[in-house]
Amino acid sequence: MLEPQAECWISISHTSGCGMLAVAAVPVGVDVEQVRNVRVRDLAPTVLTPSEARWLDDSLAGDALRRAFLRCWTRKEAVLKAVGVGVTVPLNLVETYPAIAGTVTVAAGAPGTPDTWSVTDLPVPAAWTASVALPAGTGGSVRLRPHVGN
Question: What DSSP designation does 104 have?
């Protein structure tokens, strides 16, 4: 049996009302979360780095706090999916710089993977937040293609 010669990487994520598929010629990770009531204060010690927790505590409340927390979450999960380990490492060791919108560089290398990742917030409707991670310096653009199912 012949195997395809084209190498590609995929990552899949879904949440209530939204799904994403990322396909790339390099390792890729994608995560999407529905903006919902999250127990940020309860989850912060195990999910956020100390600087992320300080920024969220000092700057935000209510829906803005939940959105910022989920931005951290989707960035972390996208990187860890791209690395190939998923949420199996302590999330509070992965710094995602939530005060910076758009694209950030995140260090989350594992043996045999890139040391740094370029993580981009994806422009999705307000009901969700999403991020995609690619190895830093690989360039390329991210295109979103909406799909409306029946």
Answer: E
Dihedral over Cα of 50, 73, 106, 99: its sign: negative
- 147 phi, psi to nearest 5 deg: -130, 125
This prediction's pTM: 0.88
For the chain, domains (ranges, CATH) are 9-135 (3.90.470.20)
Question: Over the stretch 24-54, which tens digit does the pLDDT of each residue have?
Answer: 988 999 999 999 999 998 999 999 999 999 9
Give CA–CA dist 105/37, Å, rounded.
28
- Give me the count of residues in the chain: 150
Query: Could you tell me if 44 and 72 are in contact, meaning their C-beta atoms sit under 8 angstroms apart?
Result: no
Those residues whose C-beta lies under 8 Å from the C-beta of residue 142, and which sit 6 or more positions away, are 22, 120, 122, 132, 134
Percent helix, strand, coil in the chain, to 5, is 30, 25, 45
Rg of the chain, C-alpha, whole Å: 16
